[in-house]
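Hi C.,

You asked whether I'd gotten around to modeling the 99-residue construct. I have! Everything is below, sequence then structure, no commentary in between.
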Amino acid sequence: MKSTKLFNILLGPVVSEKSTMVGESANQTVFKVRRDATKLDVKNAVELLFKVKVDSVQILNSKGKVKRYGKSVGRRDHTKKAYVCLAEGEEINFAGSPD
């Protein structure tokens, strides 16, 4: 796969209480990814961008919430998250410090 496409797969990390707990306990990192991304795309993108070894990837599709806008009813966009399990001893540091 072309590396230019892989750079567009990951939209950013998910920073929440749940993703922090999963990261500490199971050595996983959570990313928001494109809706058309596959597990193999996510694995290749993480390995290319962060230079780490990925063990497995789990994908979560979540539907957008239904919201009211005045009298009309609308829906927020659907999202896709990827739970990336890193190999033992591997770590992704988003803070940018060398440690």
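If it helps when you're writing up: The first helix runs from residue 3 to 6.

Thanks,
B.
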